Write a sequence for this structure.
């Protein structure tokens, strides 16, 4: 399957190159992919693009980490205290379907337009899906394991640490994967709407600025870069890691 | 294998047809794009009174689109989805420099533009350096270029404020400035400029003419060759534009009421705004050469363009 997919990618790029080169389409609408790639490489080596990319990825990683820590805490409270369960379920059903961009006007009023605001958008994008996934993981665990722990006198913390968390690793991996893709989308949109959130601005700002200057190749280069990062992280990092965690989980199950 | 080949051919054909189908379109609907602000008032008059429809007759339909920035106008025009667009001179020039084959049809308005700050301790441009964020519509906008011109003139560095810029629509900028967030300055145009200056905490730090050292046209109307070559429509459009500007310059009660409604402003306030120094409507184009020179010197555009290269007439 992987081979077919790669063949398709190459075929599409070649098709794009041919269409762009025939001159049938205005160059300002569709630059050739080769010129976009050259622009991208130049931008990464000679301009600030690499730093902007690192800033963006760093922000998502930071937002993701905060969300995971807070997410684990609230799922713990949710699992052991019905009061909190009710509260967080209400929060999740209100905020989970709400796109981060819809929160933007309020976020700007609360924390202004700096890095904090973008971070808040990312956390909002990640935390609810992570919480829901983890919660689902907890509830899918075989009851007998939990009862065995109870019978052996395990405290809540011990149950959480030695049964709930390890048995939910596949759900955590799924939560992280969904969280990453939601966070990455939220970040790019926020950067494109806010403008430069720091002196450097991230990859979203790069695209916005290139568009404002009518630099079509630059705009395409930004889109290609966002796509490449998305593919690399989702397909390579999470798929491999997901498989690893999943097999580890099964392995423990068999013991 | 044979099937794969067939499918590939089919997809190629479909994609080609899809790509080509956008290219032929009959010009029966005239699409005009404007943006937000008092500088576009003649277009409001033209729209409200149906002046263009009247001039063109039944054969044509007129569609008005309000877009948030020049990038959107440029893209719509590239996609053959727009006939005439109105914008500031600098973004128009950036388009020309990027290979956009458009030229100026006519000027529309002059207007005061200025940088408003909400911190009373900042009284010169120099004191603003490194102090919080400055909101303006977008990089390359007339507000950005005017700020760069003034910075170059007074501080010797056109890009000194570039790291402090934040891109915001005018109304958002007004909110942000008044809310006292990290935004200390807002480079804007009427009516937002006048509204901000009514707040006692705000004051005007610099105005557009500090940068250009002379009067300049704020908004121009531009189109591509296909619209210009349709002489009949092109002339009728100019006719309707002239008439709108005339109506606005000899404003009567009816036009005033119309405008007050479309800008959601009180009639007295609107009258005051229209009488402010520097507000003027006319088809002349002033100051293009100054923008071209500055933008070529600072690398926003790659070379000096002659007047003939940027205007139709």
């Amino acid at each position: 399957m992987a081979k077919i997919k790669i063949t398709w990618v190459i075929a599409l790029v070649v098709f794009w190159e041919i269409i762009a080169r025939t001159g049938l389409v205005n160059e300002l609408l569709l630059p050739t992919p080769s010129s976009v790639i050259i622009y991208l490489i130049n931008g990464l080596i000679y301009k600030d693009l690499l730093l902007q990319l690192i800033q963006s990825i760093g922000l998502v990683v930071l937002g993701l980490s905060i969300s995971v820590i807070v997410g684990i805490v609230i799922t713990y409270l949710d699992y052991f205290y019905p009061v909190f369960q009710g509260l967080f379920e209400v929060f999740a059903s209100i905020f989970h379907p709400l796109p981060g961009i819809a929160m933007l006007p309020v976020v700007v009023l609360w924390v202004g337009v700096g890095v904090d605001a973008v971070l808040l958008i990312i956390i909002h994008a990640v935390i609810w899906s992570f919480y829901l996934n983890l919660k689902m993981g907890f509830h899918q665990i075989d009851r007998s394991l939990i009862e065995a722990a109870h019978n052996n006198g395990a405290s809540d913390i011990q149950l959480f640490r030695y049964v709930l968390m390890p048995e939910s690793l596949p759900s955590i991996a799924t939560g992280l994967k969904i969280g990453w893709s939601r966070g990455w989308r939220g970040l790019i949109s926020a950067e494109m709407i806010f403008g430069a959130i720091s002196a450097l601005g991230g990859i979203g700002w790069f695209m916005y600025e290139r568009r404002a200057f009518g630099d079509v190749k630059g705009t395409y280069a930004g889109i290609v870069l966002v796509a490449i990062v998305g593919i690399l992280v989702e397909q390579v990092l999470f798929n491999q890691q997901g498989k690893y965690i999943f097999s580890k989980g099964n392995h423990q199950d068999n013991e | 294998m044979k099937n794969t080949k067939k499918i590939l051919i089919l997809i190629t054909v479909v994609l080609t047809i899809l790509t080509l189908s956008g290219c032929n379109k009959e010009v029966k609907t005239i699409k005009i794009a404007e943006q937000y602000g008092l500088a576009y008032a003649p277009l409001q008059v033209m729209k409200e009174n149906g002046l263009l429809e009247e001039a063109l007759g039944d054969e044509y339909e007129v569609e008005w689109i309000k877009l948030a920035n020049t990038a959107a106008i440029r893209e719509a025009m590239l996609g053959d989805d727009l006939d005439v667009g109105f914008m500031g001179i600098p973004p128009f020039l950036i388009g020309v420099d990027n290979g956009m084959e458009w030229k100026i049809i006519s000027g529309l308005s002059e207007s005061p533009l200025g940088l408003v700050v909400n911190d009373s301790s900042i009284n010169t441009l120099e004191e603003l350096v490194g102090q919080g964020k400055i909101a303006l519509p977008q990089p390359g906008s007339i507000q950005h270029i005017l700020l760069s011109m003034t910075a170059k003139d007074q501080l010797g560095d056109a890009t000194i404020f570039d790291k402090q810029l934040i891109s915001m629509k005018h109304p958002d900028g007004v909110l942000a400035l008044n809310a006292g967030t990290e935004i200390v300055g807002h480079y804007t145009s009427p009516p937002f400029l006048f509204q901000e200056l009514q707040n006692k905490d705000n004051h005007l730090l610099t105005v557009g003419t500090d940068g250009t050292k002379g009067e300049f046209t704020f908004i121009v109307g531009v189109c591509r060759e296909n619209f210009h070559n349709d002489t009949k429509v092109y002339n009728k459009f100019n006719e309707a534009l002239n008439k709108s500007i005339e109506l606005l310059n000899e404003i009567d009660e009816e036009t005033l009421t119309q405008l007050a409604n479309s800008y959601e402003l009180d009639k007295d306030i609107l009258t005051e705004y229209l009488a402010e120094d520097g507000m003027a409507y006319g088809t002349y184009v002033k100051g293009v050469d100054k923008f071209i020179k500055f933008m070529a010197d600072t690398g926003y555009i790659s070379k000096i363009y002659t007047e003939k290269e940027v205007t139709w007439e």
About this structure: Confidence is low (pLDDT under 50) at residues 249-255 of chain A. Residues 132 and 196 of chain A are 32 Å apart (CA to CA).
